[in-house]
Design goal:
The protein is built from 11 helices and 15 strands. By secondary structure, the chain is of the alpha/beta class. The chain has 2 domains: 62 residues, Phospho-2-dehydro-3-deoxyheptonate aldolase, domain 1 (Alpha-Beta Plaits); 256 residues, TIM Barrel (Alpha-Beta Barrel), CATH 3.20.20.
């Protein structure tokens, strides 16, 4: 349930409600707002009478949460969440952020070239996989820790925060030493043990939607992370599997306004995996901005024809720069700022 406090409620009023709920066995999550404080209470609602809570000093109303995801819901947190990455970068604000780079870290020269190119074009974060989940066990699996070290070097050279994927809880602490944002890939969206561990790390988490996941399942995956203690979750729509085979996936742009209605979490879009074809990426990127996304995750490779993974969907640096210029022209129309 959600306890909405009155505007004039004092700290003592809020503490009294918190103590009452805690005594009844509820997990409490305070959400101070601009106008008033909201108290989220997760637990067995039969343990307390909502009417008795409404009678307490400073309480405006008690609202039941109807969705199975509680902490990720807009009922719990009416205002949009803004996820800080660095002192200057936050996802969910007016700024529209672009995370760009190759699918996989293939070597030092490749990544440094890509990092400097996307930085010059206007990207605000660098992506690159050190550990790569692949459908075939014979495909390139990533450089692992050596790839993380190259990512760290690229961050120093470009001043771009690093986004990279974690596949296994055993490597989480190592990845946290190098990454600024931890990505959960589509295949691991429902790896619940991993999600719980991510709730205990002091890093933002970029949570990709699974290829066959409903929006509710996606938000419940985010709920695992938030409930475990980490509220800094960024959702990423990357396309879902449908009967259409022309594109790699079907990019569900309708998910953006749906998520914005149901949840306070920021949402970005991955048009590279969403289409699987580099020529379609700019159009879907513009559509994502127009639909209300908070940013993009785009694959850029200095030489896509030589890429060890996802070459057909990767933009060249020149094509990426042209796309960013198109987005820069569109951003003010959507009341957004683009670097």
């Amino acid at each position: 349930m959600i306890v909405v406090m009155q505007k004039e409620a004092t700290e003592a009023d809020i503490e009294a409600v918190r103590e009452r709920l805690t005594a009844a066995g509820f997990d409490i999550h305070l959400s101070p707002g601009v106008a008033r404080t909201v108290i989220g209470a997760i637990g067995d609602k039969t343990r307390i009478d909502p009417a008795s809570l409404e009678a307490m000093t400073g309480v405006d109303k008690v609202v039941p949460i109807l969705h199975p995801f509680k902490l990720a819901s807009r009922e719990f947190h009416p205002e949009n969440s803004v996820v800080p990455v660095t002192e200057k970068i936050a996802i969910g604000s007016r700024a529209f952020h672009i995370i760009a780079g190759p699918c996989a870290v293939e070597g030092r020269e490749q990544l440094l070239e890509a990092a400097l190119a996307v930085k010059e074009a206007g990207a605000t974060m660098l992506r690159g996989g050190a550990y790569k989940p692949r459908t075939s066990p014979y495909s390139f699996q990533g450089l692992e820790e050596e790839g993380l070290k190259i990512l760290a070097e690229a961050r120093e050279a470009s001043s771009l925060p690093v986004v990279t994927e974690v596949m296994d809880p055993r490597y989480l602490s190592l990845i946290c030493e190098y990454a600024d944002v931890i990505q959960v890939g589509a295949r691991n969206m429902q790896n619940f043990f991993l999600l719980r561990e991510l709730g205990c790390v002091p890093k933002p988490v970029l949570l990709k939607r699974g290829p066959a996941a409903t929006i509710e399942e996606w938000l419940l995956a985010a709920e695992y992370i938030i409930a475990a203690g980490n509220p800094n979750v960024i959702l990423c729509e990357r396309g879902i599997r449908t009967f259409e085979t022309y594109t790699r996936n079907t990019l569900d742009l309708s998910a953006i306004p749906v998520v914005k209605k149901l949840s306070h979490l920021p949402v970005i879009v991955d048009p590279s995996h969403g289409t699987g074809k580099w020529a379609l990426v700019p159009a879907m990127a513009r559509a994502a901005l127009a639909a209300g996304a908070d940013g993009l995750l785009v694959e850029v490779h200095p030489h896509p024809g030589q890429a060890l993974s996802d070459g057909p969907q990767s933009l060249t640096p020149a094509n990426f720069a042209a796309m960013v210029n198109e987005l820069r022209a569109l951003a003010p129309v959507m009341n957004r700022d683009l670097a």
